[in-house]
UniProtKB/TrEMBL annotation:
CDD domains listed in its UniProt record: HAD_Pase (cd07516)
InterPro entries the record matches: Cof, HAD-like_sf, HAD-SF_hydro_IIB, HAD_sf
The organism's place on the tree of life at top rank: Bacteria
Natural source organism: Neobacillus piezotolerans
Gene Ontology molecular function terms on file: magnesium ion binding; phosphatase activity
GO CC annotations on file: cytosol
Official protein name in the record: Haloacid dehalogenase
Pfam families per the UniProt record, alphabetical: Hydrolase_3
Amino acid sequence: MIYRMLALNIDGTLLESSGKLHKTTKEAIRYAQDKGVYITLLTSRNYASAKKAARTLKLKGLFASHHGAYISTAYDKPEFVKRISEDVTYEIVRLLESFQCQIRLVHEKFSLANKLQLNNNLLAKAIFTSGDPLAYSHQFVSELSESLVDTPVAPPKIEAYFESEQDLKDARKAVESMFNEVEAACSAPGKLDIVPAGVSKLSGLIYICDRLGISLKEVVAIGDGADDIPYIQAAGLGVAMGNAPYEVKRAADWVTRTENEHGVAYMVREHFRRQHPIAFLQKMNILKK
């Protein structure tokens, strides 16, 4: 099979556990690009953070951020945006405020969160990643719902961080039963992602493939989280990171090394070294242009 696209999650896949992008991984991405393979990102990160990673990798094409709700290039040219309406955002915030959780409205230009202090230091650290550029503003208010009365927001994604797993389960169940306009998923321990209905990393991948005329069978997709399973299963070659949970590995066609063992670089070298450059394959009429 000839693969024309490489789709990658960022955290736990492209990046090491330290949050850094290793030189070996960057070189492997460049190796695939030199063969004419289209590189895209599928991430739950906000656009500003995803853009920083895309520019580091010198990606000029489309990628999906905000869990697939915001599809753009790294040069501020959004092609697809789906938001949670202002009214629904307000009602969801009112519901979440009945739980002990940090609520974060993740806009493409800023985040707006309540000032709740989390006792779990690891969880608190996870809320704001080192990938957020300095230009991305984090704003805090005492009462989030009150702030939205004066200044409504329609974000592509809402995040909620819980110390209690039971609270998270109860909140997710409540959101799913009360709001048909959104979908809720747990992308990491203690974290609830709420996005517009019909939005996912897979929907983002499908959109990008349709724009480029690439079939899902021609995609190598690599991920490490439960929310990566749908696109891993849909791709022509679905790859799980060595640090991924068992259910992700079970869904994949192939398991590579961990993020700290440069799993993306290892996979790229193993598979794409046997594939001729796309331009050569097109010249030989083996692959249509």
